[in-house]
Specification:
The protein is an alpha+beta fold. Helix content is about 30%, strand content about 40%. The chain folds into two domains: about 100 residues, Translation Initiation Factor IF3; about 110 residues, Alpha-Beta Plaits (2-Layer Sandwich). It comes from Ruania alkalisoli.
Length: about 220
């Protein structure tokens, strides 16, 4: 009797249904009160627009952090002396389902002083994601069956029989692995770069390992 231990993997790529936009409101200056006042004013402007996007149906959700302020030292130019400055920061997150409205707002809000786009992540709805998870898990098991059959055929053995299936990290006496289900968006940009408004597919990936035996 011969035992086969194989991996099975699967990926499904789906168009995004939601886009989560992350905005930062940041101001710096010598006067703490002035810095805070400007941040609060712009933060209120951004959150009011976010609320209107949800009310119109363009967005499904929005949230905002409180304005926070901190002091920091900055060296004077061509000098060893420092000055105390203040920085205030707040963030706003909006989840859009209308991508045209998202694009228009990014252009508009990005022109407001103190506002920067921290990033955009492309997502699926919960219902779509759960259906994709189920399908990719099944595909991963089928892939493992095909791999085991290929090995058995190459060795001139009978069709293998399944003994056990494991998700990553659950195989006994094996080191921990990655999460059993993974998601990745092909679009988005870090805060230091301009946001990518071209919606890439969302990849849903599953992986299993399985044991088969064949005579």
């Amino acid at each position: 009797m011969t035992t086969f231990s194989v991996y099975g993997t699967a990926t499904r790529s789906l168009p995004p249904e939601r886009a989560q936009l992350r905005l930062h409101v940041t101001f710096e200056g010598r006067d703490r009160g002035s810095v805070l006042s400007r941040t609060i004013q712009v933060h209120r402007q951004v959150t009011e627009q976010a609320r209107r996007h949800q009310e119109s149906g363009a967005a499904t959700w929005w949230g905002a952090d409180r304005v926070q302020a901190s002091a920091f030292k900055e060296y004077r130019k061509d000098s060893d002396t420092t000055i105390t400055k203040f920085r205030s920061v707040a963030s706003v997150t909006v989840r859009f389902q209308d991508f045209d409205a998202l694009s228009a707002w990014v252009t508009e809000i990005g022109a407001v002083e103190g506002v920067s786009v921290a990033g955009i992540s492309w997502e699926l709805t919960q219902a779509t994601r759960r259906a994709a998870e189920k399908a990719t898990r099944q595909d991963a098991v089928r892939d493992a069956v095909v791999r085991a059959s290929d090995f058995a055929a190459a060795l001139g053995l009978a069709e293998p029989r399944l003994e056990a299936v494991y998700e990553p990290g659950l195989r006994p006496h094996a080191s921990g692995g990655a999460a059993p289900q993974a998601f990745a968006s092909r679009a988005g940009a870090p805060a230091s770069q301009a946001p990518d408004l071209k919606a890439g597919d969302v990849d849903v990936t599953a992986e299993v390992s399985a044991d088969f035996v064949s005579d």
